[in-house]
Design goal:
Helix content: 40-55%
CATH architecture of the domain at 90-197: Up-down Bundle
Shape: globular
Oligomer: single chain
Strand content: 5-15%
Number of helices: 8
Radius of gyration: 17 Å
Order of helices and strands: EHEHEEHHHHHH
Distance between the termini: 42 Å
Structural class: alpha+beta
Largest sheet: 4 strands, mixed
């Protein structure tokens, strides 16, 4: 039985699933999808015609599982480890799912809008779209500030799927639209996420690809390799 994750090391949504895998020391094979290669792209579209990453394939029952939250829940059910990503209590589980979606929709998505605009050629920029994305991030940062405690996690007393979503979302969002100084709980939560071994590993494996990130010049020195500081 083999788990294969089709992904790219710089993609934030791939980071979300990688964190869950590393949290439980789940054995898997990582296959990089190169969207600049027609063969790699065509093969990925065969797996999942929407073309999004990551996608998980389980050889045990020849099942292809797309969408990050679904992948993590699949892993939790069929490949459980010592760190469940969804709690047993139904009400707490709903909170985990809520905040998982929150970080995906209201942090990752506007962050990607800002990053995508930098890739647009001159004359095709979308300043109104960027302003709207920044406003969404400001609202999200304020809500996270109220949600997280001084020393807890996003939706449960234990690290969960919500935190898997939060870590890459906040990592990239904080680069393109930094937190306000008043967001002390958010900043402390971010530091806890960045100090998590699974997150540190994801960032370390992504580091060689940082020059490809459109805001690479704004990545804080703390996340760069020693010889780049």
């Amino acid at each position: 039985m083999t788990l294969t994750l089709y992904m790219h090391p710089l993609a934030s949504f791939c980071h979300k699933v990688l964190i869950a895998l590393f949290e439980n020391d789940t054995r898997f094979i990582a296959e990089t999808v190169d969207l600049g290669d027609t063969g790699s792209t065509a093969a990925h579209l065969e797996r999942w015609p929407v073309g999004k990453m990551p996608v998980l394939h389980a050889s045990a029952n020849d099942t292809t599982i797309p969408e990050t939250s679904i992948i993590i829940e699949y892993l939790d059910r069929h490949y459980p480890g010592p760190s469940p990503m969804l709690p047993q209590d139904p009400d707490t589980c709903l909170q985990v799912r809520l905040w998982d979606r929150f970080f995906d929709l209201y942090v990752s998505t506007p962050m990607q809008t800002i990053v995508g605009d930098r890739l647009r050629p001159e004359g095709h920029k979308d300043p109104r779209g960027v302003d709207s994305a920044c406003a969404t991030l400001d609202t999200a940062y304020g809500m996270i500030e109220k949600q997280v405690s001084a020393d807890g996690w996003a939706a449960d007393k234990s690290f969960s799927m919500a935190d898997c979503s939060a870590a890459p979302a906040l990592f990239f969002a904080s680069i393109v639209h930094p937190f306000d100084e008043k967001h002390t709980n958010l900043a402390a939560y971010f530091d806890r996420l960045m100090g998590r071994p699974s997150v540190e590993r994801v960032i370390a494996e992504a580091r060689p690809f940082f020059p490809m990130f459109p805001y690479s010049e704004a990545i804080p020195p703390r996340f760069l390799a020693e010889n780049e500081r």
